């Protein structure tokens, strides 16, 4: 799988390998994350692209993105449930 999801009480941690996505810069510059479909999907946008370059279906609905980082093509996201 290209992602790992861990849930601990009201927090979900998501780790995704984005290294194969050509449009995603390794350093995360110009990258934006958004919750869609009532928090059931995490969409990854890149500056200059009108549509998400990737969508990730979540195992539970999230209320917000608490923090995220993108290093060497690995996206780490913490979500509030």
Short précis:
With 81 residues, the protein is mainly β.
Structure description:
The chain is mainly β. It has no helices and seven strands. The protein has strands at 3-8, 11-17, 31-36, 41-46, 54-57, 64-71, 74-80. It has a four-stranded antiparallel beta sheet with strand order 1-2-7-6, with no helix packed on it. It has a three-stranded antiparallel beta sheet with strand order 3-4-5, with no helix packed on it. Strand 4 (41-46) and strand 5 form a beta hairpin. The chain is globular and about 35 Å long. The two termini are 23 Å apart. The model has no long low-confidence stretch (mean pLDDT 87).
End-to-end Cα distance, whole Å, is: 23 Å
Q: pLDDT under 50 segments (min length 5)?
A: none
**Strand order of the biggest β-sheet:** 1-2-7-6
Helix content: under 10%
Q: Pairing-aware structural class of the strands and helices?
A: mainly beta
Give the number of helices.
Answer: 0
Largest sheet: 4 strands, antiparallel
Could you tell me the radius of gyration in angstroms?
A: 12 Å
N-to-C SSE string, H for helix and E for strand: EEEEEEE
Task: Give the number of DSSP strands.
Answer: 7
Provide the residue-averaged pLDDT: 87
How much strand? over 45%
> Which shape, going by the Cα principal axes?
globular
